[in-house]
């Protein structure tokens, strides 16, 4: 157990080799060797301390395993707990933002100061930096469960906080005012189908792009003028696209469609039928045919909307906006038209009314100006009334002075 050995400089020192148990990952026996003790007693004390740690299932060795190895194992478990699209999004975030900084480091050597440095770095450029902290922390928790580290260094980091003025800009992402939206849609009419129908529906229903691209003809009720959201299109592992049930119950909804948008949809349905007939394509039966598909009648990729939106904006020098910006636009204009909070929440499928209220408080420029103008008009009308009344009083006084009393 305790052995004496001679160092390179000729001095005598003591060492020990200790059995640490079975590695839970490899199934092999684990040993550790400690050297450099000045006396047998010092080596014995160190050995006893180590054995206490082993009995308490504490960290038994400086693990040589890399962060990336444990991350891969954790993701395999995580995959079974969330929707595939969520798993893919988180894996992409890990590969892009976490792996370059942590992947090749030994899990046991990653310190709190190092983690703090990376958290500050994420904060400097990435809005969803808290998500990266959570993902990284989950890998450390996994390592902790395997007794490879003593503690989770991410638990000790100080999370930077966004300044208040930045928080207030949460919903200041680009969106269109009424006039800007109408201009965009008028321009979109000049582009090949189905560009205009796609953006008309986005703008006049507030659908998410995944919900839009998952619409089937059976989801449109032409008699009742309604549209039902029953599924969503998502990008999954290996860039596959799949149909999924929306995340929440509130996302499953049926909403009304205005008559003009309904006519746009009807005209597009006719054009799609004509194209299928011309190309010899058989539509999917039982109403399962999608509204928007590729030339081979395959579901469109989510980037199809983004790509065509960029083309329209760049070619016509329009204000930049994302597909989700049309949802924000629809929401804002609904409030401007007089819709209630509850009506907007149901129409957009918001689970939490706070989401609706956050957009509600972000009033459009026109509303802000109108509020000031209404107040000014009110005050002006009051001043005019008071001015007219004052004139009448003055005239009455003047007449009284000019009247000769009858005696």
Topology (elements, then pairings):
Elements: E1 2-6, E2 12-22, E3 29-37, H1 40-55, H2 67-78, H3 84-102, H4 112-125, H5 129-145, H6 164-167, H7 178-188, H8 195-205, H9 209-213, E4 220-221, E5 226-229, E6 232-235, E7 241-244, E8 253-256, H10 259-279, H11 303-316, H12 323-336, H13 341-348, H14 353-361, H15 365-402
Helix pairs in contact: 2-3, 2-5, 4-5, 8-10, 8-12, 13-14
In a few lines, what is going on in this structure?
Helices cover 52% and strands 11% of the residues.
Keywords:
single chain, 407 residues, mainly alpha, DNA polymerase, domain 1, hpI Integrase, Chain A, 3 domains, 3-stranded antiparallel sheet, 15 helices, 52% helix, 11% strand
CATH arch. level architecture of the largest domain: Orthogonal Bundle
> Poorly predicted ranges (pLDDT <50, ≥5 residues)?
165-171, 403-407
| Bulk shape | elongated
Indicate the radius of gyration in whole angstroms: 34 Å
**Helical content class:** 40-55%
**Based on helices, strands and strand pairing, what is the structural class?**
mainly alpha
Please report the first level of CATH classification, the CATH class of the largest domain.
Answer: Mainly Alpha
Largest sheet: 3 strands, antiparallel
Query: CATH superfamily of the largest domain, called what?
Result: Intergrase catalytic core
Q: Helix-strand pattern, N to C?
A: EEEHHHHHHHHHEEEEEHHHHHH
Strand order of the largest sheet: 1-2-3
CATH topology of the largest domain: hpI Integrase, Chain A
Tell me the number of structural domains: 3
Strand content: 5-15%
Number of helices: 15
Question: Overall mean pLDDT score?
Answer: 85
């Amino acid at each position: 157990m305790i052995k004496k050995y001679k160092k390179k400089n000729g001095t005598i020192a003591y060492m020990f080799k200790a059995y640490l148990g079975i590695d839970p990952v490899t199934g092999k026996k684990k040993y550790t060797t400690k050297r450099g003790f000045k006396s047998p007693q010092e080596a014995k004390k160190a050995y006893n301390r180590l054995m206490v740690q082993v009995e308490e299932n504490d960290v038994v060795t400086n693990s040589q395993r890399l962060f990336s190895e444990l991350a891969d194992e954790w993701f395999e478990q995580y995959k079974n707990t969330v929707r595939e699209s969520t798993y893919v999004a988180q894996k992409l975030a890990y590969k892009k933002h976490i792996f370059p900084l942590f992947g090749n480091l030994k899990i046991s050597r990653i310190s709190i100061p190092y983690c703090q440095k990376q958290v500050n770095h994420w904060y400097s450029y990435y809005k969803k930096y808290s998500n990266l902290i959570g993902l990284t922390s989950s890998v450390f928790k996994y390592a902790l469960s395997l007794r490879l580290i003593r503690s989770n260094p991410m638990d000790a980091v100080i999370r930077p906080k966004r300044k208040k003025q930045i928080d207030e800009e949460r919903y200041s992402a680009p969106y269109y005012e009424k006039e800007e939206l109408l201009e965009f849609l008028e321009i979109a009419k000049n582009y090949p189908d189905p560009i205009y129908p796609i953006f008309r529906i986005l703008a006049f229903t507030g659908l998410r792009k995944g919900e839009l691209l998952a619409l089937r003809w059976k989801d449109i009720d032409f008699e009742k003028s309604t549209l039902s959201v029953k599924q969503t299109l998502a990008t999954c592992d290996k860039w596959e696209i799949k149909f999924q049930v929306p995340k929440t119950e509130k996302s499953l909804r049926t909403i009304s469609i205005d008559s003009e948008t309904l006519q746009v949809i009807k005209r597009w349905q006719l054009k799609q039928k004509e194209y299928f007939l011309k190309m010899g394509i058989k539509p999917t039966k039982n109403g399962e045919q999608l509204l928007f598909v590729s030339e081979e009648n395959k579901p469109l990729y989510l980037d199809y909307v983004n790509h065509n939106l960029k083309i329209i904006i760049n070619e016509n020098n329009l204000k930049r906006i994302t597909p989700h910006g049309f949802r924000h636009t629809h929401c804002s204009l609904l409030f401007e038209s007089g819709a209630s909070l509850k009506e907007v929440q149901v129409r957009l499928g918001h689970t939490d009314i706070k989401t609706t209220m956050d957009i509600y408080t972000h009033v459009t420029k026109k509303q802000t100006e109108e509020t000031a103008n209404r107040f000014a008009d009110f005050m002006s009308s009051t001043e005019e009334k008071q001015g007219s009344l004052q004139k009448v009083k003055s005239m009455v006084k003047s007449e009284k002075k000019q009247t000769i009393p009858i005696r």
